[in-house]
Structure to design on (326 residues):
């Protein structure tokens, strides 16, 4: 793909949500991919696909990964039924503008608290009063989540004894806990794809911390009680057969109906206070100039041209033309 083709790719918010595959082979077909399994071949146009989740027994060719990366589709290697995350590829933007903005907010305790309150505020219908402490807000959030479980259990008729899930004992969990975990896992993948796609870091969380997916958990928690919890209880009420598969199908349809891809992008920009449209211009510049070297940091000038050799007197004496960032 030529560098200027980045401008004709669909935006993340306009794409499909995700597909999950297992026990199949994926290869390139034209400028898309094809999935081969025991039932035959399924062509998949990947230009509008946000996330490809690859479960056990999946093999993929180098050419397929290349075309998925060119189209900005996040590829995630996960466990059975999509409930474990092992590794992922990169998103479509080549700019670090948004991640630097995120890092500034994360590193400043006062700004980080503003982001934390922004994240919590999106979960509540009423305005959170300024005098509320973080501990009080956490208590309110815990009560909100417990109430949502109790409400859905009453509506669906599914017995509810509390959230109890252990990764090492997946089959020992009761059906409703497996359903919740399956739904949440897919939601994590979608939020991860959104974060990567628009140039933020999944690791720099504000409420959650210390994990490489901390910000993914921050964002996903905005939608769990609205989307994942009702779907999990409804699917469990319908029986245990093919439970995880039915969860993924129902969740994909709900993501489309709720226009979640669009909402995730808008909510991330809102909680991180991305108001400066120069960020967007800089993103476009870096995406267009993807093959050119980046800048070098300078404590006085902010940034100076990269891809060049500077002499001891500070003057440029040679320019590299190798096409890699220095």
């Amino acid at each position: 793909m030529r560098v200027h083709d980045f401008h004709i790719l669909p935006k993340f918010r306009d794409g499909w949500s995700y597909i999950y595959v297992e026990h199949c082979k994926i290869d390139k077909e034209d400028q898309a991919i094809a999935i081969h399994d025991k039932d035959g071949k399924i062509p998949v146009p990947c230009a509008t696909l946000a996330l490809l989740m690859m479960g056990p027994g999946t093999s993929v060719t180098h050419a397929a990964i290349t075309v998925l990366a060119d189209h900005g589709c996040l590829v995630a290697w996960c466990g059975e039924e999509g409930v474990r995350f092992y590794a992922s590829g990169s998103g479509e933007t080549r700019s670090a503008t948004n991640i630097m903005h995120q890092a500034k907010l994360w590193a400043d305790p006062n700004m980080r608290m503003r982001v934390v309150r922004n994240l919590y505020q999106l979960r509540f219908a009423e305005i959170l009063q300024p005098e509320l402490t973080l501990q009080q807000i956490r208590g309110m959030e815990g009560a909100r989540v417990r109430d949502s479980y109790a409400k859905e259990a009453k509506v669906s008729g599914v017995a509810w004894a509390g959230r109890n899930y252990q990764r090492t004992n997946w089959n020992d969990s009761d059906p409703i806990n497996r359903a919740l975990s399956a739904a949440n896992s897919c939601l994590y993948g979608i939020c991860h794809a959104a974060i990567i796609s628009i140039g933020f870091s999944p690791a720099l969380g504000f409420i959650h911390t210390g994990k490489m997916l901390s910000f993914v958990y921050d964002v996903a928690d905005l939608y769990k009680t609205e989307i994942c919890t009702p779907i999990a209880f409804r699917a469990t009420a319908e029986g245990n057969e093919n439970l995880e598969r039915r969860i993924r199908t129902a969740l994909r349809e709900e993501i489309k109906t709720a226009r979640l891809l669009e909402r995730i992008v808008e909510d991330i920009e809102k909680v991180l206070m991305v108001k400066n449209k120069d960020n967007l211009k800089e993103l476009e510049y870096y995406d267009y100039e993807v093959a050119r070297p980046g800048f070098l940091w300078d404590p006085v000038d902010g940034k100076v041209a990269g891809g060049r050799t500077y002499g001891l007197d500070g003057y440029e004496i040679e320019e590299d033309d190798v096409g890699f960032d220095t």
Summary: The two ends are 22 Å apart (CA to CA). The chain has ten helices and twelve strands. The chain has three domains: 3-88, 97-271, 295-326. The first helix runs from residue 62 to 70.
